[in-house]
Amino acid sequence: MSITPHDERFMAAAIRLSRWHLGRTATNPSVGCLIVRDGVIVGRAVTALGGRPHAETQALAEAGALARGATAYVTLEPCSHHGKTPPCAEALIAYGVARVVISVTDPDPRVSGRGIAMLREAGIEVDAGVLEEEGRHSLAAYLTRQTKNRPYVTLKLAVSADGMIGRMGEGQVAITGPEARAQVQALRAETDAILVGIGTAIADDPLLTVRTPGLEMQSPIRIVLDPSLALPLTSKLVETAREVPVIVVASEEVSPLAADAEGLPPSVLPDISPIGGEIGNGPALSIPSSDSNVPASANLGQGASSQPISPLVGEMPSRAEGGNPPTDMESRRAALEAAGVEIVYCNPYHPEILLPALATRGISSLLVEGGAKTARLFLEAGLVDRIQLYQAPVVIGEGGIESPLQATDIPSGFAHKGTSIFGADRLDEYEREN
């Protein structure tokens, strides 16, 4: 059967539905599903919070007997393997669906093509690739973790009219207006984790949570690149670490096991879940090493380097950006951990190692918010997938901190995807071309 405008209209609705739970479905993708009979939607669902139940089983249950002979529109190929729940392909067959329309084929080797084959073997008509570009955009985080062994990385920058992102020594400086800031809160709410450098953490003392009323529980895990454990104990991040998790990425040189760990892979990541920042009680998981099935340096993305990234000026382990190293490292470490901060010993200037380690913990999306040096680190490593560049009419003037990126010098390999206006501010979005 050929694809019709009705198919595209229903798939577009399923894609919009899939975005409802972005960042809230653990390691599972947020999938949208519609059951349509005689042009009427009789069942609809999005992957449940936490990742289960899947969208298809919920939509089928809502449709009930009306699912027989109907068409199912699914943003991602229905699963075909037995995991913690039975395969969705089996559920579609059992309910007697006549046709399944799919946007994106699942790259998961347990599923890829098998779900479609199972449906066709049962006599169900299957059409795939409907609004595939739009579907891939909504599933970008899941697809990146599956195919590149790392989270999908978004770099967000707010730049003044004179090319600055802040002012030296003044902490947080409002560059964009309330409309643009509200949009950033929405972005945080659909992201698994947010990352800043220690300079930003000290200078701005940010909270990095979602402050939109009703979305506070969707705050991402907060990550600070902090080679010398210089994060102040009185910072907002530390003071709220038991409410929303904070991970500090410290240099191996300050690890209590440094003397005994020579020649071993970097230390482990805490056992964290990207759902509402919950911390689990299971065993920690080692960072992938060169003899893993998927090397840490494999499939990291265009321009990624497996070589160490040079430490940023002013961010050497003995001289953390924006702060002095603590004099009593052991007591500092103990105080941070007592406050609920997780400490990971992994060279902060090796994003090609850190990102796969985050992926092993189910973190599929990462928002890099600051500062300038941290932004350059990820850009130079070729590990940014999307750039959100806000441009505001505000003038910072003398003492400004120059932006690492402006609209006139977007790196090669990025395509401009669109412009949006929020109040007096302009947002230009760029995505890495595959």
TrEMBL record:
The keyword Hydrolase applies. Pathway: Cofactor biosynthesis; riboflavin biosynthesis; 5-amino-6-(D-ribitylamino)uracil from GTP: step 2/4; Cofactor biosynthesis; riboflavin biosynthesis; 5-amino-6-(D-ribitylamino)uracil from GTP: step 3/4. Keywords: Hydrolase, Metal-binding, Multifunctional enzyme, NADP, Oxidoreductase, Riboflavin biosynthesis, Zinc. GO terms for molecular function: 5-amino-6-(5-phosphoribosylamino)uracil reductase activity; diaminohydroxyphosphoribosylaminopyrimidine deaminase activity; zinc ion binding. The keyword Calcium does not apply. Residues 5-127 form the CMP/dCMP-type deaminase domain. Transmembrane segments: none annotated. Residues 280-330 are annotated as: Disordered. GO terms for biological process: riboflavin biosynthetic process. Its EC number is 1.1.1.193, 3.5.4.26. Residues 287-309 have a biased composition (Polar residues). It comes from the Bacteria. Gene3D superfamilies: Cytidine Deaminase, domain 2, Dihydrofolate Reductase, subunit A. Converts 2,5-diamino-6-(ribosylamino)-4(3h)-pyrimidinone 5'-phosphate into 5-amino-6-(ribosylamino)-2,4(1h,3h)-pyrimidinedione 5'-phosphate. PANTHER family: 2,5-DIAMINO-6-RIBOSYLAMINO-4(3H)-PYRIMIDINONE 5'-PHOSPHATE REDUCTASE (PTHR38011:SF7), DIHYDROFOLATE REDUCTASE FAMILY PROTEIN (AFU_ORTHOLOGUE AFUA_8G06820) (PTHR38011). In the N-terminal section; belongs to the cytidine and deoxycytidylate deaminase family. In the C-terminal section; belongs to the HTP reductase family. This is Riboflavin biosynthesis protein RibD.
